[in-house]
Design brief:
The protein is α+β, with helices and mostly antiparallel strands and 381 residues long. Helix content is 35%, strand content 20%.
Length: 381
């Protein structure tokens, strides 16, 4: 293995006499500055011969100041216990059978964390080290992932605590004092336990959906879906629960193309969007279902997709929040919820090959619009 450098103007490196060998980055037409990760290369004497743009950005050390310097001076890394990393690893004088250092968190001057891995390029399997190739990566992306996981755990713990406390309290009370309660009191307690159990079940289902969406394992069982009838069922459920029928306006444009989708997943999308409109919006909730062009590239024919728009007449979503609506834990208000519903909605729609957008409705409220391409199972195509 050999790492050479580009001779292009402005390249942040120098060419070493022994570096020009088959397989060099330069021979492959790759400038080290084009690499997404930091690249630092030292020669057989421990002097830096390559310090790319990403390494400059991550370390805040100019390439001109690093080139030609000893590796330990140009890149003064310490482990999390404050020990100097190059003295610990001793790439040039250590065991001759070593060829790499696995990635680990190390500290730059000032305490900034960076992910570092190294490879020792030897003249022979146990020969002298000819190159030390160091890869640097910023920890910002990993920290964001860890923070997201921590937020998810905290949210789940908070959401589970309330219903489980209720379930535990009512069941313990009933078991200890069953004879003291009337039938109506027992029924009320059991109905509360049942509702809280449903809440826990919904939360677990959301977590499973998030896991499948994030890992790309969300399974779809496509069937013919009558999207108008599906919306109608949700409206009827709200009316049966006590909402006035004139709170909803369903506008259906015919003819609609045949839609093959997972009916349970589409019900989940509709349920979430309508619940948001009812809970967080005001006035009439309008649902428009129209044929439209496919969101897929190369399928720009007219009426090859179905579009569903759900809008309300409330205060809407602030402009500065529009780009965060479909992220985890976003809440439009402080009226409860996990903040995971719209994230799941977006994952379901995109798993169908569709798109979803948010904007301001003509009446001033929020407007969610998702478009599903007209697709069919493989055995019918």
């Amino acid at each position: 293995m050999s790492v050479g450098t580009s001779s292009a103007p402005g390249a942040r490196n120098v060419r070493h006499p022994s570096a020009a060998r088959p397989g060099d980055l330069a021979e492959l037409g790759i400038d080290p500055d084009q690499l997404p990760d930091g690249l630092v290369v030292a020669d057989e004497h421990g002097h830096v011969i390559c310090f790319n743009a990403a390494a400059e950005r991550i370390t805040a050390v100019p390439a001109a100041a690093a080139l030609g310097q000893r590796l330990e001076k140009a890149l003064p890394l310490e482990d999390l216990e404050g020990r100097r990393w190059w003295q610990l690893t001793d790439p040039y004088g250590g065991l001759a059978i070593r060829f790499r250092q696995p990635e680990r968190n190390l500290l730059l001057p000032g305490g900034r964390e960076v992910l570092v891995s190294a490879r020792y390029v030897r003249t022979a399997p146990t020969g002298a080290v000819r190159r030390v190739v160091v890869s640097l990566r910023d920890t910002a992306a990993r920290r964001r992932t860890e923070r997201s996981h921590a937020e998810l755990i905290a949210t789940v713990a908070h959401e589970l605590r309330s219903p489980l406390t209720s379930v535990k309290g009512f069941t313990a009370t009933l078991l200890a004092k069953w004879e003291r309660f009337t039938d109506d009191q027992k029924r009320l307690m059991l109905e509360t336990v049942d509702a809280d159990a449903d809440r826990v079940t919904r939360l677990i289902a959301e977590l499973l959906d998030i896991s499948r969406i994030d890992s790309g394992r969300l399974e779809l069982r496509r069937q013919p879906v009558d999207i108008g009838a599906a919306v109608g069922r949700h409206i009827q459920a709200y009316v049966a629960a006590g909402l006035p029928a004139d709170r909803f306006l369903l506008r259906l444009e015919q003819p609609l193309p045949d839609l093959w989708a997972d009916p349970d997943k589409i019900d989940q999308v509709l349920s979430n969007l309508l619940e948001n409109a009812v809970r967080h919006g005001e006035g009439t909730v309008t649902i428009d279902i129209t044929p439209t062009a496919s969101p897929r590239e190369g399928e720009g024919h007219e009426n090859t997709a179905t579009s569903v728009t759900v809008s309300d007449e409330g205060s809407g979503i602030p402009e500065e929040s529009m780009n965060r609506v479909f992220t985890r834990f976003w809440r439009g208000s402080k009226r409860g919820g996990t903040g995971l519903g719209l994230y799941i909605v977006k994952g379901i729609v995109e798993a169908h090959g569709g798109t979803i957008t948010v904007g301001r409705a003509p009446g001033g409220g929020a407007e969610f619009r998702f478009t599903l391409p007209v697709s069919a199972p493989a055995y019918l195509t």
